[in-house]
From TrEMBL:
This is ABC transporter. PANTHER family: ABC TRANSPORTER ATP-BINDING PROTEIN ALBC-RELATED. CDD domains: ABC_DR_subfamily_A. SUPFAM superfamilies: P-loop containing nucleoside triphosphate hydrolases. It comes from Meiothermus ruber (strain ATCC 35948 / DSM 1279 / VKM B-1258 / 21). Residues 2-232 form the ABC transporter domain. It holds the Pfam family ABC_tran.
Length: 247
């Protein structure tokens, strides 16, 4: 469903992403893990069409994101780590605007918006300006917007940061449920317990390369680790060593 082929990104002479190959299969939720600066956001931005890769391809639902961006963008919903939402619109206005971009028929859009406002417990605030929303409310609105067109794939960068326990549970359930019925979810996170609880497979990237890939259970078994934290720290140890040299 989501496919990265030899995906690479250079910033001048610095290689941020170095030939990443990765697939998120239909029905699968995959967590992208890695230390600060590993290349997670670069991967996600190259995948959703925000950052042109220096080499390689990104495909969603078989459509090349860079060759056929309009058709590809109909295949996925995207939630950035820091969503920019225009503050002078109400939540309802923003959702209607986004539904227009996705060309949803009016009646279908209204029904879908209503459903999402209820799901994300935003009904009471639907007519309030987004500039009055808290961080968590903006995050939920951004999620609702990404789901408007019921896309086959959902791509999220740090979906849980700053959410209260209610919203955390809501998003966890969503990530778990969404990939059922043949859809796919890819999210980047630093929250290892999230990956442990809500990922069929985990991809660990480090210095722009794929270091390990498998189900949490497989990875712990292969590397003789007791939990994902120990696994993560052990495999990316040289990252913290170089960080302490810089400090
Ligand atoms: N515009 C840019 N110009 C130069 N280097 C960049 C640029 N954007 C990112 N980088 C570098 O690319 C590398 C990967 O960055 P990226 O943001 O993808 O990491 P990340 O895994 O998302 O990190 P974090 O967990 O800290 O968000 C980092 O070394 C970063 O400094």
């Amino acid at each position: 469903m989501i496919r990265l082929e030899d995906l690479s990104k250079r910033y001048g002479s610095f290689v941020a992403l170095d030939g990443l190959n990765l697939e998120v299969r239909p029905g699968e939720t995959l967590a992208l893990l890695g230390p600060n600066g590993a290349g997670k956001s670069t991967t996600i931005k190259a995948l959703v069409g925000l950052l042109r890769p220096s080499r390689g391809r990104a495909l969603v639902g078989g459509v090349d994101v860079w060759k056929d961006p309009v058709r590809a963008k109909a295949q996925f919903g995207y939630v950035p780590d820091r969503p920019y939402l225009y503050g002078k619109l109400s939540g309802l206005e923003l959702l209607r605007f986004a539904a227009g971009i996705y060309r949803l028929p009016r009646a279908q859009a209204e029904a879908r918006i209503e459903e999402l406002l209820v799901q994300f417990r935003l009904e009471r605030f639907a007519s309030s300006l987004i500039e009055t929303y808290s961080h968590g409310m903006r995050q939920k609105l951004s999620l609702a917007m990404s789901l408007l067109h019921a896309p086959p794939a959902l791509i999220l960068d740090e979906p849980m940061v700053g959410l209260d326990p209610h919203a955390t549970r809501l998003v966890k359930d969503l990530l778990r449920e969404y990939s059922k019925n043949g859809r796919a979810v890819l999210y980047a996170t630093h929250q290892l317990h999230l990956a442990e609880q809500v990922a069929d497979r985990v991809a660990l990237v480090h210095r722009g390369r794929l270091l390990a890939l498998g189900s949490p259970k497989e990875l712990l078994h292969q590397h003789g680790s007791s939990d994902l934290e120990e696994f993560f720290l052990r495999l990316t140890e040289d990252a913290s060593e170089s960080a302490s040299v810089l400090a």
